[in-house]
């Protein structure tokens, strides 16, 4: 399996752009180092970098956000709603629910507004008209600096573990204790 380097692939993307086959070209899931490699040889700067972005990964993604802002590359954020759709019950729930209650909006609208406050364009979808309307209304929602800081702080605590991961961690801990006890008793495995 061949895997061309970033500049080689980007030159091919630039050719597509030059031929008028694409209005703009971008990348997905590039980190800051990969963006730097691309920009070092690019004739056409990527219009966007689509990345995973929600409060639980914000600190990890911050270098990408900063690099993109410095180089005027739009960040498109996917999976912004993961804290309430796939990882409910985590630390982000408390500030999101409090803000939603105070503003009379839904939690998903708060997370979309948080994402927008981070300078990203939200990429999301739904087949339900009412949900799509809520997403559109989130565009007008403005969070305070305190709201954003509360969500950031909660996200920094980390996502809740799935039930399977909790069980695996617990079993690993038990196995480690059993090994240590056995070792202390002179048992060799």
Automatic annotation (TrEMBL):
Pfam families assigned: Aldo_ket_red
Picking any one GO molecular function of the record gives: oxidoreductase activity, acting on the CH-OH group of donors, NAD or NADP as acceptor
Q: List all membrane-crossing ranges.
A: 167-186
List the SUPFAM superfamilies hit by this protein, alphabetically. Answer: NAD(P)-linked oxidoreductase (SSF51430)
* Key words, A-Z: Membrane, NADP, Oxidoreductase, Transmembrane, Transmembrane helix
Query: Belongs to which family?
Result: Belongs to the aldo/keto reductase family.
Write the protein's name.
Answer: NADP-dependent oxidoreductase domain-containing protein
Which organism encodes this protein? Mycena belliarum
Q: What is the lineage of its organism?
A: Eukaryota, Fungi, Dikarya, Basidiomycota, Agaricomycotina
């Amino acid at each position: 399996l061949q895997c061309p380097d970033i500049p080689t692939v980007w030159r091919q993307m630039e050719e597509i752009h030059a031929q008028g086959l694409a209005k703009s070209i971008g990348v997905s899931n590039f980190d800051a180092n990969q963006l730097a490699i691309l920009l070092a040889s690019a004739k056409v700067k990527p219009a966007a970098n689509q990345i995973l972005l929600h409060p639980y990964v914000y600190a990890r993604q911050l270098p990408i956000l900063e690099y993109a802002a410095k180089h005027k590359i739009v960040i498109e954020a996917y999976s912004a709603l993961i804290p309430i759709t796939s990882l409910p019950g985590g630390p982000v729930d408390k500030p999101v629910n409090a803000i939603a209650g105070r503003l009379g909006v839904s939690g998903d609208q708060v997370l979309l507004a948080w994402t927008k406050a981070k300078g990203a364009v939200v990429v999301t979808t739904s087949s339900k008209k009412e949900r799509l309307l809520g997403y559109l209304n989130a565009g007008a929602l403005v969070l305070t600096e305190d709201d954003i800081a509360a969500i950031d702080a909660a996200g920094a605590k980390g996502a809740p573990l799935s039930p399977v991961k909790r069980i695996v961690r617990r079993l690993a801990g038990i196995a480690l204790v059993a090994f240590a006890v056995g070792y202390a008793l002179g048992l060799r495995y």
